[in-house]
Amino acid sequence: MQILRSLSALSIVLALIGCAAPARIDQMQISTNLATRTAVANSAMREAIAVRDVTGGKETNPMWVSSVSSSDFERALEFSLKDAGLLSPNKQAGKYVLVAHLSQLDQPFAGASMTVTATVRYTLIDRATNKDVLEKTLATPYTAAWNDAFMGSERLKLANEGAVRANIQQLIDALAALKVSGAEVQVGK
User: Fold this and answer.
1) Is residue 3, in this structure, part of any structural domain at all?
2) pLDDT tens digit string along 20-53?
3) Backbone angles phi, psi at 167, to 5 degrees
4) What value does the mean pLDDT take over residues 106-115?
5) Is residue 12 part of a domain?
6) How many domains does the chain have?
7) Which CA distances in Å does 189 have to 36, 56, 173, 186?
8) What is the 3-state secondary structure (H, E, C) of the chain?
9) Inside any domain, residue 10
10) Cα(25)–Cα(75) distance, rounded to whole angstroms?
């Protein structure tokens, strides 16, 4: 009888926790605002960036916790850069190459509201000179509130998606502010 109660309690806990699902690409990508699109339209970065070597992500184990895979992060990054007008139409011909490493996805073990911080190291390289144009590490937190989703695994997934989305937004803001004049590159104010 005790074993039956223990199994029932474990079943209820597992049902409330749920299986872990990976972060969704469409929830990690951003839609750029008009001000950013206008800044990019007048920038040397317009349609000049190709994405290469996106690393550091981890596949989600359904029996453990939600995560962000490198391939899903890369697709969300490419979709976001394309929406902003920064992505080169030809991956092999982009004037600049963007390398991204998802170095950390700091997740809580449990909680009502869950805050995840995504830390990504970005390097923008001039393809012609092979020199770094921009090297930036961005750490962006995002909190999924307790009422955003009933199950903790879903809140964690929402927090993962929000942290990556905020990170991509900060990258796009930095790229839109980048000023390129001749051989000099300066970050705009």
Assistant:
1) no
2) 676 767 777 888 777 777 778 888 899 999 999 9
3) -65, -45
4) 78
5) no
6) 1
7) 14, 30, 11, 9
8) CHHHHHHHHHHHHHHHHCCCCCCCHHHHCCCCCHHHHHHHHCCCCCCCEEEEEEECCCCCCCCCCCCCCHHHHHHHHHHHHHHHCCECCCCCCCCEEEEEEEEEEECCCCCCCEEEEEEEEEEEEECCCCCEEEEEEEEEEEEECCCCCCCHHHHHHHHHHHHHHHHHHHHHHHHHHEEEECCEEEECC
9) no
10) 7
Task: State how far the Cα of 104 lies from the Cα of 101, in Å rounded to an integer.
Answer: 9
| Closest alpha carbon to 105 in 123, 90, 88, 118 | 118
- Say which CATH number the domain at 58 has: 3.30.160.150
pLDDT grade for 94, boundaries at 50, 70 and 90: confident
Distance of CA 28 to the CA centre of its chain: 6
Residue at 8 is within a domain = no
Give the residue carrying structure tokens 């697709």. Answer: 75
